[in-house]
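Researcher: Re-running this chain for the archive, since the previous output was lost when a drive failed. Same request as before.
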Amino acid sequence: MRQLLSQLAAVAPLGQGKRGFANQLRRFLEGAALPVSWQHLRWMVFQSDSQRGQLYRPEFRAAVADQTARVVREVLETDQPDRLTAQTRSDMRFYLAEDILPKVDSMSMATSLEARVPYLDNDLLDLALAIPGHMKLRNGTRKYILKKAFAGRLPAEILARGKEGFSMPMKNWLNLEWNALMHELLCTENLRSDGFFEAKTVARLMAEHESKRHNHSHLLWALMVYQLWKQRFQAAVP
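Model: Regenerated structure tokens:
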């Protein structure tokens, strides 16, 4: 069944929105193939071990040796009352501290806003961490206690609204207005001068993305940002 679903996901068309069902299904199936205690890891990384093996040059692959996945797995495998608690602590350690909070801080300061995070009040956070996972996720309803607490105080459409997130329509931008920039930054000459990434693999990823067979926007954008960072700061080094 898992193999059949993987085949269906591979041929499912990617939508024009920020997210595509096929892309989410592919990531879900990749996570389902991992050991139970590691399954949350798939939602925190954008490449499998085999994909990194194709992208990284041998010397670079040997140097990094799967460091990111290793530290995440250490948190996921730490003794916790249940899987949801382990995943929550992993998100707090990595996703919250190294992604979401810096985004909010940087973007709010850039527009002269002083953001607040009331759900991270120490006492409230301690209480939330002490609540068993089965009370937070009930019959498929996420944030069950929070929604029950605000029932009758907030409109039903607000309580039932799906999560939006911080994602951008990057997959469309890389095929349209930023396509020329992508090819300029990820050209063979730039990649070979670094010695980190396989130029043929990157060219294949760009071709697959442009044909809309796969959504490689997260990876391609990360490679582009690295090239921009390198150009800016290497030039400043005397």
